[in-house]
Amino acid sequence: MKIPVAPLFALVLALPLAACGERPQTGAPGTDTALGQKVRAATDEARKKLAEGNISISKDGGAKVEISPSGELLINGTAVPLDAGQQALVMQYRAQMVKVAEAGIDVGIAGANLGVNAAGEAIKGIFSGNSGQVEARINAEADKLKQQAQLICDQLPALMATQQKLAAAVPQFAPYAKMDQSDIDDCRSNGEFSAP
């Protein structure tokens, strides 16, 4: 699963949609644009699937590894027998993965809104001659989004620690516990994290 944390990527994706007729809605600051509302509707469905469905951990080497909402660790559809302590670790790991994914969803929505708003502001700036002020406002919003995205990266050390504990406690899971420090470093430097 790819979790986007680079807000400018969302901006680039949103600009073509803005050019195709999506316009920001008027309303209170921070409200979703029309595109943001569409993205939010799609992401509400993704949040529901995160809460109610299995979370895929790996499809490495043909093995399909998932965690169910009830804390079952499934490898190729077969539940791995777990004691209470192991299941608690599985549930902790699942909860942390959901939290990271939901943070990525929030950044995606904010990025879509920023992209549409930036396109509208740029057009206004051209006609008003205030492009410098517009650019400053857009950059300030993009900086806020970058900070929000970095909060995702800040969650990764705890996720990796739980993954390592789970790998030590459940040997069947160990081959699929592939997150390492380079993933955290890549998140902070490149703005993207490949979930384990």
Number of separate helices: 5
| Strand order, sheet with most strands | 2-3-4-5
- The averaged pLDDT comes out at 76
Order of helices and strands: EHHEEEEHHHE
What is the count of distinct domains? 1
Largest beta-sheet characterization: 4 strands, antiparallel
Q: Could you say which overall geometry the principal axes of the C-alpha atoms support? A: elongated
Q: Alpha-carbon distance between the termini?
A: 8 Å
Oligomer category: single chain
Unreliable sequence segments: 1-29
Radius of gyration: 20 Å
What is the helix content?
Answer: 55-70%
Q: Structural class from helices and strands? A: alpha+beta
Beta-strand share of residues: 5-15%
- How many DSSP-defined strands? 6
How would you explain this protein's 3D organization?
- 64% of the residues lie in helices and 9% in strands.
- The protein has 196 residues and is an alpha+beta fold.
- The protein has one domain (2-20, 31-194).
- The chain has a four-stranded antiparallel sheet, with helices on one face. A two-stranded antiparallel sheet has the order 1-6.
- It is elongated, with a radius of gyration of 20 Å.
- 28% of the residues are buried.
- Residues 1-19 form the signal peptide.
- It holds the Pfam family DUF2884.
- It comes from Stenotrophomonas pictorum JCM 9942.
- InterPro entries: DUF2884.
